[in-house]
UniProtKB/TrEMBL annotation:
Highest taxon, organism lineage: Bacteria
Signal peptide boundaries: 1-20
Entry keywords, A to Z: Signal
Protein name: Lipoprotein
Length: 202
């Protein structure tokens, strides 16, 4: 009778070990907690950003064509928000007036900031692309290259092509049934703008 007094504790110990093993295999307990917190461990150990998950906030600029930029005119502002890889709202400094949106686009192989502006009904009524904003010299060859590329895209010669002798600036304009495309060049400035053709004499 005395030899059996150790059987119950041994059985309880064996059952406890079996339950612990099953608990670990089912993905809970310390082993599972270690696997779940892998990104926290990487962050604490100073792992590089490349080893962390990529979020949607880091998106590359979107490819765009001149025709796609023309198509923005007349669109609802909310419909343009996710175009060309996404945008951010553009407000006046005091947040009292909504201007439009700011995009980063790839146009003709280069990346540029693009801005839209809206009317009181939040309809896009202007698109502008700053090819050079004063930080570098723009050659006449580069400006003419853009004029030729726009002419090829539109399929027509500019209706206006003039050089201002006073300011030294040059302006090109292409008018279609829906939009007016303007290219402005002066010294360190080269900009492209698109507006509705409402009321324009052709």
């Amino acid at each position: 009778m005395i030899r059996y007094k150790w059987i119950l504790p041994i059985l309880l110990l064996t059952a406890g070990i079996s339950l612990a093993a099953c608990h670990s295999e089912n993905g809970s307990g310390p082993a599972a907690a270690q696997e779940t917190n892998i990104y926290e461990d990487q962050a604490e150990s100073g792992a590089s950003d490349a080893s962390l998950p990529v979020t949607e906030e880091t998106s590359a600029s979107g490819e765009a064509s001149l025709g796609e930029l023309q198509a923005l005119i007349g669109m609802e502002d909310s419909s343009t928000a996710e175009m060309f890889g996404g945008s951010q709202e553009n407000w006046t400094e005091d947040k009292a007036f909504y201007i439009g949106r700011i995009f980063e686009i790839t146009l003709m192989g280069q990346t540029y900031p693009m801005y839209t502006s809206c009317d009181d009904n939040n309809i896009v009524n202007s698109v502008s692309v700053w090819i050079a904003n004063g930080s570098r010299q723009v050659t006449e060859e580069e400006a003419r290259g853009w004029a030729e590329a726009i002419t090829a895209s539109v399929g027509a010669e500019p209706t206006y092509d003039d050089t201002s002798s006073e300011a030294g600036s040059r302006n090109w304009k292409w008018v279609s049934d829906q939009t007016i495309i303007s290219l402005h060049w002066m010294d360190k400035i080269l900009s492209l703008s698109i507006n509705p053709a409402v009321g324009e004499l052709k």
